[in-house]
Specification:
Blueprint: E1 2-3, E2 22-23, H1 26-33, E3 40-41, E4 52-59, H2 64-73, E5 79-80, E6 91-98, E7 101-109, E8 118-123, E9 134-140, E10 143-149, H3 157-164, E11 168-169
Antiparallel strand pairs: 1-5, 2-4, 3-11, 4-6, 6-7, 7-10, 8-9, 9-10
């Protein structure tokens, strides 16, 4: 929704009302993402035994182009709204659990100018100032990817690297 007077909307011209798709069954997630274009997160090959899918969330992409279009269409109006149609995910997060241990697979679109591909990097929670999880990160084609596990999870750096390399469907 576009609001021409920023003072009416917390100093912002745009307000988003969104109900992102949420899933508790992997099959429902697969069916929903089968309609999307672009990169998506998938269950990696060799998922360790005993881990089950517990939840997934897909978020729409953020689009300055869409905002510019809405603002142009709203010319002269105090408030104007338009439904955002999207065919590519802006963010996806899937979680698997086995007892107290979990695995989170996460993809985000990079909205900055720095879209340079970066190779796989492992970071442990014990050695990090940025995360409280053991994780592998990398980026490519304007997306950043994370595969992370809770501290104390028995999966090794090598295990995480193997899973990370098959969690993306292009």
């Amino acid at each position: 929704m576009y609001v021409s007077d920023k003072k009416l909307n917390g100093d912002s011209e745009f307000m988003y009302y969104v109900e992102f798709p949420k899933f508790t069954k992997y099959e429902d997630y697969e069916n929903w993402t089968s309609k999307l274009k672009g990169t998506i997160v998938q269950e990696p090959e060799g998922m360790p035994e005993g881990y089950t899918f517990v939840k997934g969330v897909i978020q729409s992409p953020f689009s300055r182009k869409f905002e510019a279009q809405v603002k142009a269409e709203a010319k002269g109006k105090v408030v104007y709204s338009k439904k955002m149609e999207w065919t590519e995910a802006g963010e996806i997060k899937l979680e698997y659990k086995k007892g107290k241990d979990n695995i989170i697979l996460h993809m985000q679109t990079v909205y900055t100018e720095d879209k340079e591909a970066k190779g796989y990097t492992y970071e442990s929670a014990a050695d990090s100032q940025h995360t409280d999880r053991n994780q592998v990160t990398w980026s490519e084609n304007g997306k950043i990817f994370f595969l992370s596990v809770n501290p104390g999870n028995p999966l090794t750096e090598e295990d995480l690297m193997k899973l990370a390399k098959t969690m993306i469907k292009k």
